[in-house]
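Support reply, case 0932

Customer input (verbatim):
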Amino acid sequence: QVQLVESGGGSVQAGGSLRLSCVASEYSFRNYALGWFRQAPGKEREGVAGIDRDGSTSYSHFVKGRFTISRDNAKNTLYLQMDSLKPEDTAMYYCASGTEIGIIGDTWTLITEEDYSWGRGTQVTVSS
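Our regenerated output:
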């Protein structure tokens, strides 16, 4: 499995911005679909945004228009630019790898043949 390390989290005020990074150990990084997920205290982990091998992107409705997912295959790095942050964006953010992005209606899924391999995550805290 691809080993992933997240960074870039922090504490910001509502309306602020952060950029998260996720560095992969796998030299064939470009062959994977990737996704950002988050988990707030007392809540289930949820998908935030996904990017397929061809660079096509998908977003969950609650971040659409505010967050941008991108990848740099030369640097084995996945990014999540988060703008117009809201207190409800407060959560631990994780990245994960898979084989492709599946889309049904307006819902996206990171498809994988194995269980997701989760890193330690990076904490994002947004104050009002």
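We compared this against your earlier run and they match. Two observations from our side: The chain is about 0% helix and 50% strand. The first strand starts at residue 4 and ends at 7. Please reopen the case if you see a mismatch on your end.
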